[in-house]
Specification:
Layout lengths: L1 H18 L6 E2 L5 E2 L3 E8 L7 E7 L5 E8 L7 E5 L2 E3 L1 E7 L3 E9 L10 E8 L6 E10 L2 E3 L13 E3 L2 E3 L3 E3 L6 E2 L5 E3 L2 E4 L4 E4 L4 E4 L4 E4 L4 E5 L6 E5 L13 E6 L6 E4 L1 E4 L1 E8 L8 E9 L4 E17 L5 E14 L2 E4 L11 E4 L1 E5 L5 E5 L2 E7 L2 E4 L5 E4 L9 E3 L2 E2 L21 E2 L2 E2 L5 E3 L4 E4 L38
Parallel strand pairs: 1-5, 3-11, 12-17, 15-18, 16-19, 17-20, 18-21, 19-22, 20-23, 21-24, 22-25, 23-26, 24-27, 25-28, 26-28, 27-29, 28-29, 29-30, 29-31, 30-32, 30-35, 31-36, 32-37, 35-38, 36-39, 38-40, 39-41
Antiparallel strand pairs: 2-4, 4-9, 5-8, 5-10, 6-7, 6-9, 10-11, 13-14, 33-34, 42-43
């Protein structure tokens, strides 16, 4: 009996202890402090959820307090969602904060553009009530868009697997209808899955149009199809992810790629910006006498694999800027024809170790045969010509010509600034990397480019750049910003400025 009473007493004490607070509180008297008085949830597309934003609430007093209520002013009708102290909802009661302590309130939103009277959507978080009430404003700009979705039925588009990171990728998508082949600037486009231009058709992207891609989405130009991106100096065409918040503006790998498949033809990108994908542009086409892709005044930034991955194709580039990528800014592989003039290839990727140079050119590919043996085949490199180009980055070696005997290997570099410090002597006996051979003319080896801000892919050159007044005369009379280069032309895509 005595043991039973002892056990019962322990249980009662434990119950009392577990039910009581470890501290006493006083009611909030309207003296809360906040990390911000307005939470801006940036811009979101209609019916696409925002990122999670946070608000920190401080109790600066010497006693623990209880906030009687925390709620959204619009209550259950609000398009905002709160999480307070780990609990989701729109109304919260009796929330405690210890003395000289704080707590987080997390805020998200999803808004239907057509269901709100004003695209600038607002609400308030109300803390306490009556004379003690304090509030924090919530502000979001919701943007209408044209949404393109893949077929819900089994995929009607038969395409090969897209290879990213060496692994096959499952692709959901469909061919664009004739009525969808013209993209305008009236509304942005939000694309789910891969939208493809069918054989014999041309997709036209007008100046100022913006194409936003969801995760695992992209754009395909199929065999026999063509893409014309017609941006201008003042109204660029933009390819990027569908998260508009500022925190996503420089996150790579948000979407797939712009893929020009084998047999696509006469593709053109003018005044176009492509950023934050896995591969900026994948050109996978049969080499011919005419360019499969022409790039003029085009920028490709911040891709998690390659800026351009070209495979046995023909590319013409003028005033092209290709910035940070985790592998190579430009990989011109399996032979082909590549002619770049007044272009800047600058890879300062810092998110991980980068094994490849800013520019890689080769004439071969390797595969396993039916017996599991590794087979290497070569294809003709008809031309890899770099004129008035900057090729640099944060590696010692940023330019590699990788030749395998068995096919033609034609290349040249003229009036170009090239980063190549072979500290370990790896390329000592490599003829293609001997900058004294006749394929190289007026090379500025390991020169100082003096970029304005490499962390922001800002590759305008400054007054101390070795590229100034070092370019050979060319027919490209203006730089990528429209600045004249008829006098004292600089190497690269930009004329120099004073920072």
């Amino acid at each position: 009996m005595r043991n039973f009473l002892i056990v019962l007493l322990v249980i009662i004490l434990a119950s009392v202890t577990s039910c009581r607070k470890d501290f006493t509180t006083v009611q909030s008297f309207g003296n809360l402090e906040f990390s911000k008085d307005t939470v801006f949830l940036d811009t979101v597309f209609s019916n696409i959820g925002s990122a999670t934003h946070n608000l920190k609430v401080y109790n600066r007093g010497s006693k623990a307090i209880t906030i009687p209520s925390i709620q959204l002013e619009n209550g259950m009708a609000s398009n905002y969602r709160l999480n307070v102290d780990g609990i989701a909802g729109d109304t919260f009661n009796d929330i405690d904060i210890l003395a000289n302590d704080s707590m987080y309130v997390f805020i998200e939103t999803t808004i239907d553009f057509n269901a709100v009277p004003n695209p600038l959507y607002t609400d308030k978080i109300l803390f306490d009530n009556g004379n003690n009430q304090q509030d924090v404003d919530l502000v979001t700009l919701v943007q209408d868009a044209v949404f393109l979705f893949p077929d819900r039925d089994p995929i009607s588009m038969k395409i090969d697997s897209l290879t990213l990171d060496g692994q096959p990728t499952t692709i959901r998508g469909r061919f664009l209808e004739d009525s969808e082949l013209t993209f305008t600037k009236e509304k942005p486009y939000v694309i789910y899955g891969y939208m493809a231009v069918p054989n014999g058709k041309t997709a036209t992207i007008n100046a100022g149009a913006k194409l936003h891609f969801h995760d695992n989405s992209g754009f395909i130009v199929d065999n026999g199809a063509t893409l014309k991106s017609n941006g201008t100096l003042t109204e660029k065409v933009v390819f990027e992810g569908d998260r508009l918040e500022h925190t996503f503006s420089n996150i790579p790998g948000q979407w797939g790629t712009l893929w020009m498949r084998a047999g696509s033809k006469e593709n053109e990108l003018h005044n176009t910006q492509i950023k934050n994908g896995i591969i900026g542009v994948l050109v996978d086409s049969i080499n011919g006498t005419n360019p499969v892709l022409t790039l003029k005044n085009t920028e490709i930034y911040n891709n998690s694999n390659y800026g351009i991955l070209a495979r046995e194709t023909n590319i013409l580039g003028e005033n092209v800027v290709i910035g940070n990528a985790s592998q190579a800014s430009l990989a011109a592989t399996i032979g082909g024809t590549y002619n770049f003039t007044h272009s800047t290839f600058a890879n300062y990727w810092s998110n991980s170790l980068r094994q490849l140079p800013s520019v890689l050119v080769n004439n071969h590919f390797t595969y396993l045969n039916a017996s599991g043996d590794e087979i290497t085949e070569t294809r003709d490199l008809h031309a890899a010509n770099f004129t008035n180009c900057i090729i640099t980055g944060n590696n010692n070696i940023e330019f590699i010509l990788d030749k395998v005997d068995g096919s033609a290997f034609n290349y040249s570099a003229t009036n170009s600034l090239i980063q190549f410090e072979d500290v370990g002597g790896t390329f000592t006996n490599n003829t293609e990397m001997d900058f004294t051979n006749s394929n190289y003319n007026n090379i500025i080896l390991n020169g100082f480019p003096h970029f304005r801000d490499t962390s922001k892919n800002d590759f305008i050159i400054g007054e101390n750049s070795d590229a100034i007044n070092a370019a050979a005369p060319s027919s490209i009379s203006e730089d990528i910003l429209g600045v004249s280069r008829t006098v004292n032309p600089a190497i690269g895509a930009y004329q120099d400025i004073i920072f």
